[in-house]
Amino acid sequence: MRRTRLATALMVTVLSASLAACGGEPAAKPSPSPTTKAPAKVKLVFGVSGHKTLVDTYKQLAAEYTQEVPNVTVEVKSWPTEDQLAAAVDSGEKVDVVLTPRADVEKFAEDKLIQPVDTLLEARNVDFGDKYSREAMEDFSVDRRLECMPYSVSPQVVYVNTGLIDFEAMKEEELPTPSFRADGSLRGWTLEQFSSAMTYAAEHNKGVRGTYVEQNLSSMMPWLAGAGATLFDDPLAPTTTALGDSAGAYEELVAALNQPNVLASPKDLGGRTPFQAFKQGRLVALTGDRSLVSELRATEGAEWDVMPMPGGNGTTGDYAGLCMGAAPADPDAAADFLTYLISTESVVKMVRTGHFVPVNSEVGYAPVFTQPERNPKNARIFTDTVRDMQVLPEAAQLAQLQKVAAAPVRGSLTAEEPEQIEEFAAQIDALSKTVFPQPTPTTSPSPSISPSS
């Protein structure tokens, strides 16, 4: 495995996440220092992908940077998807700074399409302390070098139609009920509490079902992670799924999903997408990432919040990082611009789009992100759950894994005996080995044989 833990020396200055007394933003601190050398006139290309609102904000940041540093012009080039952006870079597209999915970092580094940023950022007094988790830093490191700076993260959480569930009534009936914080926000739930809440809501609201989970491995993974399953043998360079070792968690999840009215069928959706059914109050719960927030806020009369995956043991998701091209127009100018992008001030502007979850936890726990006056009340879950997030393999591997594992996944969801689920989990593990690179067997030298005397 090429990726290893960052050297301890990389974890420099520890900075506490103190927040402003008012204004809802992290307390003002000096931004990371750029180089003192004024670069000659240079044009940088910033490669990005994503929602139009995000791309527009990247362009705003680039324009503001050009005003601050007039001899540097930043052109933002965008692609509709991260896969298309990665393909463009792979085919030789010139970028000085590029937004890169975690899964592409190692390949880009091996192909010398990017260069390490640790030394460049240390020279600019960038803090790698409390604001960035060790897990995120490791995920963007290759051979003990930080190749890219962790930037955004997309954990899967559960959106809940709170208007469909009377939790106080559930508690009075002594039913398994999710726990609450002192401020009234939902804290978390066990699998038993989840299925109890889904069944209760369906019984008390005509035409309502608990949730919808597509019968494929990608859709199942955040649920399995929440239940306590370890999904892969190696989180950064998997050679197999590890569901056979987590058969107990798999069994508990299937049992919870198979409780009355918990799972909706395609027929129950009545031609709606799962998200449409959720917005219309036909589904009590639905998994999703932060990108659903803005549309739900615009849905009149909606009562909703977010919760961690049932079980509370984790979730799935992915990171994106900011990388420097291997041959930028001006290395110092590119490093200065990257430093500007990861500054607290710039990250706050990204957060305000409503489509961005920062890796920078100083911003992630600040009111500018949690927005306590608006739904979701439990917004801190997006940041909390990252600590136990299992990252997914790159898209092509995941698509192939989903294809080869289709039959045993469907079988597991209808299994009636725990032994059957164990068998299906073992089948998924065996089939997954046809998708991931397998370690090359090492051959031991043959023992020498002394000639007979």
What is the topological layout?
Elements: E1 42-49, H1 52-68, E2 72-79, H2 82-90, E3 97-101, H3 102-110, E4 114-115, H4 118-122, H5 134-139, E5 141-142, E6 145-146, E7 148-153, E8 157-160, H6 167-172, E9 179-180, E10 186-188, H7 191-204, H8 217-227, H9 247-257, H10 266-269, H11 274-279, E11 285-288, H12 293-297, E12 305-307, E13 315-317, E14 319-325, H13 331-341, H14 344-351, H15 361-364, H16 367-370, H17 380-384, E15 389-391, H18 395-404, H19 406-413, H20 418-432
Parallel strand pairs: 1-2, 1-3, 13-15
Antiparallel strand pairs: 3-14, 4-14, 5-6, 7-14, 8-11, 8-12, 9-10
- Provide the domain count: 2
Portion of residues in beta strands equals: 5-15%
Give start-end ranges of low-pLDDT stretches.
1-23, 448-453
CATH homologous superfamily annotation of the largest domain? Periplasmic binding protein-like II
CATH class group of the largest domain = Alpha Beta
Main β sheet profile: 6 strands, mixed
Overall body shape: globular
Task: State the separation between the terminal residues, measured CA to CA.
Answer: 47 Å
- Name of the CATH architecture of the largest domain: 3-Layer(aba) Sandwich
Mean pLDDT: 88
Q: Which range best describes the helical content: under 10%, 10-25%, 25-40%, 40-55%, 55-70% or over 70%?
A: 25-40%
Separate helix tally: 20
Rg, Cα atoms, Å: 24 Å
What is the fold named in CATH at topology level of the largest domain?
D-Maltodextrin-Binding Protein, domain 2
| Count of DSSP strands | 15
